Structures are given as structure tokens and as C-alpha cells.
Amino acid sequence: MEFNDIVTRARSNKKVLAVACADDETVLKACVNAHKDNLCEPVFVGDKKRIEEISKKEEIDISKYEIIDEKDKPSACEKAVRLVSENKAHFLMKGFVDTSVLGKAVLNKEWGLRTGSSLSHVSIFQVNKYHKPFILTDSGFIIKPDIPMKIDIIKNSVKVMRTLGVDCPKVAILCAIEKVNSDMPETTDAAILSSMGNRKQISDCVIDGPLAFDVAISKESAEHKKLKSEVAGDADILVVPDLACGNIMAKTIIYWTECQFAGIIVGAKAPIVLISRSDNEKNKMMSIAFGAAV
């Protein structure tokens, strides 16, 4: 699987994108550009007057797009989520609204997008120093995951990788060291998750941990440490101990390397696209393509 395969997959079957609280310059530009690139067909839900003001100021042509007028943000989130739950849209995007407000709508028991799994953030990267695209998770949603949440995080990311054509992804549970240390609870969690993988309690993947980052991405480091591992140096998925580690790592990669990047929330009935104002235009487009592809 190559990174650009995501774009090819997204273009092969254009999906309808429901945008919650679309009255935001960054979101409008990203969606219009994604539509021009045949990645999606956006439907804007939000303050219509404000959307029109922004589009006029920024010279964004929104004349061809459906706009559902709703000034109240929780109601706009509900309407956008309902478009997906009623099969009128295929995936969801967060606009100018707090993630918690959109999350409440997504998890509504009556008309939301619950699946029984925890929601988690999946970032996919291609960096010039690694031989293939890889997923980093969770870097944007679950703050301090426990074992059941980490199981969902792994399952969610494995499902994404399999959708993109990697049948049995290799999962590295990242820690500071490779040995279990009771003073470092994340290493105990890693050992449990690795054991669950070996026993096929977590299926369709190969899991190893605890693994330090250098070992997970470098066979030379693994050989130097005399560590035998099917995952070492060839990881498809990097699972971090908590959101702080993941967020710092993701931003370090984005700002200090030449990379391609996209990120979405998974675990619901449909992917949820989140973009940051600090994301460059290509990364914004790729996140929408990522959501459409999976």
C-alpha cells in the first residue's frame, strides 16, 4: 500500500460528506478543494448567513453545494450526524464546533453512530526515512486509555489498515523500553496486549510490545539490542501509551520531517474528519480523502 493509494481509493467512488457547523473558513476551503479534486460531495450544515459571508470574503464559490441552515451548534451536529445515520451521507466532518459537542451527537443512542467500540484517532503518515506508510494511534481523542480502550484502539486501526489493503498489519505497542517494568504501567499493558495477539484474542494482526520507537521502526536497532521480533523494523501501526505521547509525536513528525499526513476518528459507523487550522492545504485534503477511502 502506497500513501497515494488513499487518494485513488477515494476518487474511485465519490462519497457524500456531511459537514457539521461548516461556518469556518478553513473547513469551507478544504471541502470545496476536495470536491474539485473528486474526493467527496460536501453538504454544509450550519449558520447559512455566516457560511455565505465567509465564502464571499474568501472568494469561495459555494453556489453548487447544499446548505442546511442551522445556527445552533448542537442542532447542527445532530442534523449532520442524522444525514450519515439515515444513509444520506457516507462520512462526517467536524467544523467550527467543540469536539465534545460533536461527540455527544455521534454517540446519541437513538440516532447516533455508535458501534459498541471506543472512538479513536488514527493518523497515517508517509515519511522519507521509513519504507512504507504507517498509522500512529491514538494521538487525538482518548486521553488515558485503559486496557479495554487500547484493545479498541488496536482493532480500529487494524480495520483501517485492512481496508487499505494490508491484510495482516504489524502492531507495535510503544513504550520507553522493551522490558516489562512494574514502575511503568504502560509496559505491563503492552505485554498483556501482545499476549492477547499471540492467543488471537485480538485477530487479523501481529502484535508485539513493549517496544521502544527505535526498535519498532529499525531492524538495525532491534539487532543491536538482540531483540527478535516479527514487528521490529517493519511496524504498520504504532500504538502510543496515551494522548500526550501521541500528540507530541504526531506534531514532531509533521513539523520536523518531510511527510504526508492524514487523520480521522474511527470506531463509529462512519469516519469523522478533523482538520486543524495549522494543517497545510495538502494535509487537509488528505484527511478528507482518508475519510472517504475508509
Report on this model:
It is a single chain. With 294 residues, the protein is an alpha/beta fold. It has an 11-stranded mixed sheet, with helices on both faces. It contains 11 helices and 11 strands. It has helices spanning 5-12, 25-36, 48-57, 73-85, 99-106, 147-163, 185-198, 213-217, 219-224, 243-256, 281-293, and strands spanning 15-20, 40-46, 66-69, 91-94, 120-127, 134-137, 170-174, 206-211, 237-239, 259-266, 272-273. The chain folds into 2 domains: 5-114 and 268-293, 3-Layer(aba) Sandwich (Rossmann fold), CATH 3.40.50.10950; 123-259, Isopropylmalate Dehydrogenase, CATH 3.40.718.
Question: Strands, helices and their partners?
Answer:
Blueprint: H1 5-12, E1 15-20, H2 25-36, E2 40-46, H3 48-57, E3 66-69, H4 73-85, E4 91-94, H5 99-106, E5 120-127, E6 134-137, H6 147-163, E7 170-174, H7 185-198, E8 206-211, H8 213-217, H9 219-224, E9 237-239, H10 243-256, E10 259-266, E11 272-273, H11 281-293
Parallel strand pairs: 1-2, 1-4, 2-3, 4-11, 6-9, 7-8, 7-9
Antiparallel strand pairs: 5-6, 5-10, 10-11
For the largest sheet, list the strands in their spatial order.
Answer: 3-2-1-4-11-10-5-6-9-7-8
CATH class of the largest domain: Alpha Beta
Main β-sheet: number of strands, strand sense, barrel status? 11 strands, mixed
Helix fraction, binned, reads: 40-55%
Radius of gyration: 19 Å
The tally of strands reads 11
| CATH T-level topology of the largest domain | Isopropylmalate Dehydrogenase
The outline comes out as elongated
Whole-number mean pLDDT: 94
Work out the oligomeric state of the chains in this entry: single chain
What is the H/E order?
HEHEHEHEHEEHEHEHHEHEEH
Secondary-structure-derived class: alpha/beta
Task: Give the N-terminus to C-terminus distance in angstroms.
Answer: 14 Å
Number of separate domains: 2
Number of helices: 11
CATH superfamily of the largest domain: Isopropylmalate Dehydrogenase
**CATH arch. level architecture of the largest domain:** 3-Layer(aba) Sandwich
Q: Tell me the fraction of residues in β-strands, as a range.
A: 15-25%
